[in-house]
Specification:
The complex is a heterodimer of chains A (about 300) and B (about 375). Chain A has about 300 residues and is mainly α. Chain A has one domain: MetI-like (MetI-like fold), CATH 1.10.3720.10. Helix content of chain A is about 70%, strand content about 5%. Chain A has 14 helices and two strands; from the N terminus they run ααββαααααααααααα. Mean pLDDT of chain B is about 90; it is low at about 1-15. The chains are: A mainly alpha (about 300), B alpha+beta (about 375). Chains A and B meet through helix 9 and helix 10 of A and strand 6 and helix 2 of B.
Chain lengths: ~300, ~375
């Protein structure tokens, strides 16, 4: 009897797993449900600026799900274009981060143990200053009479300033710069665990160093590549600040559309629908990420 | 001993050639490897015969692994020559050498199946898919792992992983096989079984093999010849019984097995016998053969514990006997080791086969016993 009772009483395990559950509930599930609810309502000029979902009329509870907002997203090609453009930018930026981040992570993992932490520190250090200040610094570097153009003109390589700021190139530079640590850290965590003797075994069996990299190191770092890519891609899809400040009129990202919908048009229901669809699109990569992360935890890949 | 087992021509067509055995199939000349002024391998020269299993035996840090890594091509010697089958290989990269290695704890590729691991070298060498499949099949049969072809390394036991590692290192038919602490990752019971099996496979294929180990039992069981290494230098090379019965120095005598070292000096140096006067024995040791030395020379007499006879009553022989009391007993089941304190204070170890079951048949603490040994029981060592 006591034993059965004890099973239902909270024990130490609850104290450990309750905080993260509570955190997820409060800061993910509840806001998500609120956004979901708003996405099914209609706009109205009031406070709050949307209609309630449920209504008492006499003795019947009427719940009205308004799908107009979602249909509206399909009607106006702006939204679909923005989603596709965001995905494209996220995929390309992720690939660029991988290209830049992999060699850095690899080099850090190969450093003597004592210098590794310093190197990792240097990777993380920039994020100690405000994100906005760093983006403005990049604007200062890339603008027409900025550091980069002045330097290139001074060296005589170019006569006229290159137009970089307010082009897609500037957006990629900003995103790769800002999200690089999220690529490097999981890659490093993976690469540092690699057993050097596996490479020796590969050389022993006739592999040249680059073949050994392609056949041993790269496949064994798959989990790190996926983790890093997801950590970069998922937030970049919804990125708002960088395209807003560094992109041009032609840079279309769903984060900016969302912002305009919310603050300029004050259309909370459509803005919520945009957010919900974005989340739905991201569920697929999130699931892939989760799948490999749990595999990694089980030690199947490493 | 397995090393003396007869070699059977392999069923897979790798027959042993009738050509005379090359004494210098692997030839290492004046090999030195320095790290920041520290000599890990110090001027080593040795020859390895074709088809033999050659063991480098020594404590950790003696340079045996560095020497093996020089052979594999993972370390570049500071200077010295290595020739394999008449070809200098020092300048060749590891991936160009016809040498394969079975790594300590195997270094199997965790993301590949057993057959992909075994076929890896063949794939790198650019063989066709059919060729690779056939050879992998052959290797799987050799190590009896056919049933596990599709498994990943983490799904295998330690012994199975070792078989795969062996198959992988043999798949390319290397001219020289290197084994780095081959039994290091196995538990004791499995170890002795795998030692014999490994030797069986290596001898069946007739592949020349250099192994590194710190385990003298392993070296004695598996190797045709053993090199004892210490501080980067080779102290002695010989067959297991040469190393054990005729150690060249006090170091080797003490390194292999246990030994009683009796320090003394040559008292009487004759052509057919010598006597050694020692402070720890009441009468001089009589050695039934001549030694290269001179009267008065300081020597050590190395006497293995199992060469000493222990009994209650005084033996009839006149020479080479001493009386003492049993101070300690270590019971090992098959035999017991008695620590016998002589009147001079010297302690001698004596092995006694426990041929009878009852403790009353054996000796016990504080028993006064007589020790005796034959005139050729020990070795006179000058260094």
């Amino acid at each position: 009897m006591m034993a059965r009772l004890r099973r239902w009483l909270p024990d130490g395990r609850w104290a450990v797993i309750a905080p993260p559950y509570f955190w997820m509930l409060l800061f993910f599930a509840v806001p998500f449900l609120i956004a979901l609810k708003i996405s099914f309502s209609s706009i109205q000029i009031a406070m709050p600026p949307y209609t309630p979902l449920s209504e008492w009329s006499g003795d019947a509870l009427a719940i009205k799900l308004n799908l107009k907002n979602y249909l509206f997203l399909l009607e106006d090609s702006l939204y679909i274009k923005a989603y596709l453009s965001s995905l494209k930018i996220a995929v390309i930026a992720t690939f660029l981060c991988l290209l830049v981040g992999y060699p850095i992570a690899y080099a850090i993992a190969r450093l003597p143990t004592a210098s590794r932490n310093t190197a990792l520190m240097l990777v993380v250090l920039p994020s100690w200053t405000s994100f906005l200040i760093r983006i403005y610094a990049w604007i200062g570097i890339l603008k027409n009479n900025g550091l980069l153009n002045n330097f290139l003109i001074w060296t005589g390589l170019i006569d006229e300033p290159l137009k970089i700021l307010h082009t897609p190139v500037a957006v990629y530079i900003g995103i790769v710069y800002a999200y690089l640590p999220f690529m490097i850290l999981p890659l490093y965590t993976n690469l540092v665990k690699h057993d050097h003797r596996l490479l020796e075994a590969a050389y022993d069996l006739g592999c040249r160093p680059w073949q050994a990299f392609l056949r041993i190191t790269l496949p064994l770092s798959k989990a790190g590549i996926i983790a890093g890519s997801m950590l970069v891609m998922i937030p970049v899809v919804g990125e708002f600040v960088i395209p807003e400040l560094m992109g041009g009129a032609d840079t279309l990202m769903i984060g900016n559309v969302l912002w305009k919908e919310f603050f300029n048009n004050r259309d909370w229901p459509v803005a919520s629908a945009v957010a919900i669809v974005m989340l739905a699109l991201l569920i697929v990569p999130i699931l892939i990420f989760h799948h490999y992360q749990s595999k990694e935890l089980e030690g199947r890949l490493a | 001993m397995a090393a003396t087992a007869s070699s059977v021509a392999a069923s897979n067509g790798v027959a042993k050639s009738d050509a005379p055995i090359r004494e210098d199939y692997v030839r290492i000349d004046d090999l030195t490897k320095e790290y920041d002024g520290f000599r890990a391998v110090d001027d080593v020269s040795l020859n390895i015969r074709k088809g033999e299993i050659f063991a480098l035996l020594g404590a950790s840090g003696c340079g045996k692994s560095t020497l093996l890594r020089c052979l594999a091509g993972f370390e570049k010697p500071t200077y010295g020559k290595i020739e394999l089958d008449g070809v200098s290989i020092v300048e060749q990269a590891a991936y160009d050498r016809p040498i394969n290695m079975m790594f300590q704890s195997y270094a199997l590729f965790p993301h590949m199946t057993v057959e992909q691991n075994i076929g890896f070298g063949l794939k790198m060498a650019g063989h066709s898919g059919d060729r690779i499949r056939a050879r992998v099949e052959e290797m799987l049969t050799l190590v009896q792992m056919n049933r596990f072809a599709k498994r990943k390394p983490h799904q295998l036991s330690g012994g199975q992983q070792q078989r795969v590692a062996l198959a992988r290192s043999l798949a390319l038919s290397p001219k020289l096989l290197l084994l780095d602490e081959p039994m290091g990752a196995l538990d004791k019971k499995l170890r002795s079984q795998m030692q014999l099996e490994l030797v069986g496979i290596i001898e069946r294929l007739g592949v020349t093999c250099v192994m590194v180990t710190h385990d003298q039992e392993e070296a004695m069981t598996m190797a045709t010849r053993i090199a004892i290494m210490d501080a980067g230098k080779i102290r002695q090379i010989g067959t297991p019984d040469e190393i054990y019965e005729q150690p060249a120095s006090k170091f080797v005598a003490q390194f292999i097995g246990s030994v009683n070292l009796i320090e003394g000096s040559i008292e009487d140096d004759e052509k057919d016998h010598v006597t050694i006067r020692s402070e720890v024995l009441e009468q001089p040791i009589f050695v039934g053969h001549g030694v290269t030395g001179f009267e008065g020379q300081a020597v050590a007499y190395a006497l293995r514990p199992e060469k000493i006879k222990i009994e209650k009553d005084e033996p009839t022989q006149e020479r080479n006997k001493a009386r003492g009391t049993i101070e300690d007993i270590a019971y090992f089941g098959t035999h017991s080791v008695y620590h016998v304190r002589l009147a001079t204070g010297k302690k001698l170890l004596v092995h006694f086969m426990n041929a009878k079951r009852w403790a009353s048949e054996r000796f016990t603490w504080n028993d006064t016993v007589w020790l005796s040994w034959g005139e050729n029981a020990g070795v006179v060592l000058t260094s």
